[in-house]
Amino acid sequence: MKKIGILFGQERSFPEAFIAKVNSLGIKGIQAEAVSISKVAQGEATDYAVIIDRISQDVPFYRAYLKNAALCGTAVINNPFWWSADEKFFNNCLATKIGVPVPKTVILPSYELPADTSEKSFSNLSYPLDWESIFSYTGFPAYMKPFAGGGWKNVYKLESMEDFFAKHAETEQLVMLLQEEIVFDEYYRCYCIGGKYVRIMPYEPRNPHHLRYVADFAPSAERLKLMEDIVLRINKYLGYDFNTVELAIRDGVPYAIDFCNPAPDADIKSVGEENFAWVVDTAAKYAVEKAQAQVPNEDNLTWGEYVRRGATGKALYP
Predict the structure, then answer these.
(1) In this structure, are residues 62 and 53 in contact, taking their beta carbons and an 8 Å threshold?
(2) CA 303 to CA 38: how far, in whole Å?
(3) CA-CA distances (angstroms) from residue 172 to 18, 77, 113, 152, 162?
(4) What is d(CA 103, CA 109) in angstroms, rounded to the nearest whole number?
(5) What pTM, to 2 d.p., does this model score?
(6) pLDDT at 283 over 70
(7) Domain 104-180: which CATH class?
(8) For the chain, what are the domain ranges?
C-alpha cells in the first residue's frame, strides 16, 4: 500500500476534499489520509510515499520533518529544500533571465537592525542608499511588500518619496521589496500543478477578498496560450509541483506579479466551486502519479531547471 498524506493547518475544505477524491478513485494500492506524526527520528522513513505540504512555511518543525521524509524517499509536494531557499526577489531576478516580464523591483535592507546585529554588521552597505536612483527606477505609485512570505500581509501602496519613508519606518525588521506599479487592464491567477496542468482564473485583486474571483475578463485563445506558456516556464525553472502565478496584463503584455505561492489558497469559499473542483481533481490526479512513480529510499523530489542546470554544469538560461 502506498499512502498519500496531506499536511495542513487551519484549512479544511481542500484537505478533506483531496483525501476523499483520491480514495474515491479506487486505485489499487493507493490510499490518502491526513498526515499523522507521533515521532520524528533522524534517518527514519515515514509511512507516506507522497506528502502534500500546505503548512510548513508557518511551522519550522514540519519543514524539518519533511526534509527528513524526503531524504528517506517520500515525494514531498513541494520540494522542502528548494522552498526553504526560495524567495520573491530571487523569483523576480530569475524571471529577468528566462524572458518573463516582471515589474521593476529593488530589494531594501530592513528599517531596523536584525536581532543580534549592530551597525558594524553592515560594513559593506552604503548609507544612505541611492534613494534618488531607486525611486527613479521604480517610479510612484509603487508597492512595497516583504521579500519573503505570502498573502497580502505588510503590503503598502506608496504615492511618493515621503509616503515611502513614513511607511518603511513601520516595517521593523522585515526585508522589503519596492516594486513598480503595473496599472493593468486584466488580471489572472493561475494554478500550476505538476509543472504541466494549468488553470487560468480571471481575478480582480481590487475587489474585496471574497469577490476577487468574480471577474469577467475574457482572454483570447492567443492570450491564454501566452499566459500558459509563461506559467509553465516559471514553474519549470523554479521546480514547484503546486504553485500559483499572478499575471497582470498591461498593454497586452502579461507581467508576472507574484509567483512564489507554494501553498496557494484553495478554499472553496474564496476560489469558487468550479476552481475548487479543478484543483481538487488535478491535485489528486498528480499525487497518484507521484505515488505510482515513487521509489523507496531514492530522491523522489522535483528539482527545477535552475538547480538541475547548475548541478550539471549546463548553461543556466535559454
Answers:
(1) yes
(2) 29
(3) 39, 33, 8, 17, 17
(4) 19
(5) 0.95
(6) yes
(7) alpha beta
(8) 2-81+286-302, 104-180
